[in-house]
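Internal QA ticket QA-208
Title: Verify multi-chain structure generation after dependency bump
Assignee: T.L.

Test input:
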Amino acid sequence: MTGLEKFKYLIDNSFRIVGFTGAGISTESGISDYRSQGGIWEKFTPVYLSEFINDPEKRILYWQRKKALWESIKNAKPGMAHYFFEKLHRQGRLHGLITQNIDGLHEKSGLPPELIVNLHGTTLELVCLGCGVISDAHSVMDHLNPEEPPPCPLCDGLLKPNTISFGQQLVPADLKRAEVLARGCDLMIAAGSTLQVQPAATYPMIAREAGAQLVIITLSETPLDGYASMVFHEKLGTFLEKLERLS
Ligand SMILES: [Zn+2]
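Actual output:
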């Protein structure tokens, strides 16, 4: 069996697959890879949550960046990797999906939102820092003036995209859901993540230690390659095309 055939064999014999995805699966949809060389985070000084709340100038800067990001995200289409996981769901094999991405492309691919853990939140929603109500981002973002973002209609509080900012804790309920998924899967497929951001990157490890197979598909080497059952250092699109041809 070739490596690819072995991977297909694993998929065909797994019924509680969990996906773990990172920026690499969205670059083919035209979304920037934040953490890579020359990515958005290298060019800009981050705005911390405390600055967003307390410093009006930093808040404007934050909204200007989010508006620019929104333009690329709102029209982005899911790529092959997103549809790969959606297909696993239709086949009844997908137990859940944990993603580091904030672009909402897994939802757009048709994967039910209740199967998805957005560890770093999602740009498709806004959250009120006052009352905590979460709302759809489209109506606000499409007409946004970064210098005068609208307040929460319920409490007049500050609205913010529902993504995890610098200096902001990940949501405990999401961390818990991700851990439960990792412990309960029979195969974890980590795709397009460098597996370097903690605590996110611990989930493939948790899955492995709980007895699951772990397959890593990403362009560059990761710190968990030595723990994986199989590793493919390939461009995702090319890799999935080859896999498709086996089916
Ligand atoms: Zn509010």
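Spot checks passed. The CA atoms of residues 151 and 158 lie 5 Å apart.
Status: verified.
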